């Protein structure tokens, strides 16, 4: 264990720094709210402790000796570092960052941010989005919500939602399709979709039609968007039919902005809540993680029925 530091009082060093910077005891006193004799007394105390003169007294002020000049540079640098660290500490905010994709952030996480914030008052909640698959080495977030198969080395992953997908459209297209539309009737409308990925990361229209024993590879009216929020916006505007991931479209179905217009399809993939396997979560992070798992569990009991048009 390091021994006790042999230092003069901090106030004495502050007075020395001001006197050296101004080259004048009176000016230093004015800055610090001290009288000239009080400044002189503290300088004399420091010189006595060091057993060395730090200033040459002159008629119009003072000038640092060689020993005083060496000490000044060290004290000035040290006080600057202390001041900067105090400033950083004063304005430093506790932050919880959650990484996910834009679709999940927009349609599921954002409506719940107030509830998350209420769990951890005084902590800034940051949401960061990326279209890329999760990479443990590149992630700085304690919590990540990512779509995939659930296998990411070096992590703990718990599934929030399985991949349950249904075709959805707005009211105008639903009226044209009629009640209980046949899957083949969807081929008469533009199919809204995300770009293809290799390897495939999520269910596609080809998968859905294949499950219905139909071919959709030659559909020419498809429209591709590079963000899921654009796919859903196009569906809301009646530009075609989209595949809707259940957790994301639930509010739009409940509010009758979108309608389910075909059978559901499922896979073993889904949205997973990911954290490091080696770095324990803080109590605040653990509180949010538990809440997210509970919220996802509750969602499974709020099944969405196919709305009937009036």
Automatic annotation (TrEMBL):
GO terms classed as biological process: DNA-templated transcription
UniProt keyword annotations, A-Z: DNA-binding, Transcription, Transcription regulation
GO molecular function terms attached to this record: DNA-binding transcription factor activity; sequence-specific DNA binding
Record-annotated HTH lysR-type domain positions: 8-65
Keyword Transcription regulation: yes
Highest taxon above the source species: Bacteria
CDD domains with a match to the protein in the record: PBP2_GcdR_TrpI_HvrB_AmpR_like
Keyword Transcription regulation appears in the UniProt entry: yes
Gene3D superfamilies with a match to the protein in the record: Periplasmic binding protein-like II, Winged helix-like DNA-binding domain superfamily/Winged helix DNA-binding domain
Protein family according to the UniProt entry: Belongs to the LysR transcriptional regulatory family.
Name assigned to this protein: LysR family transcriptional regulator
Organism: Superficieibacter electus
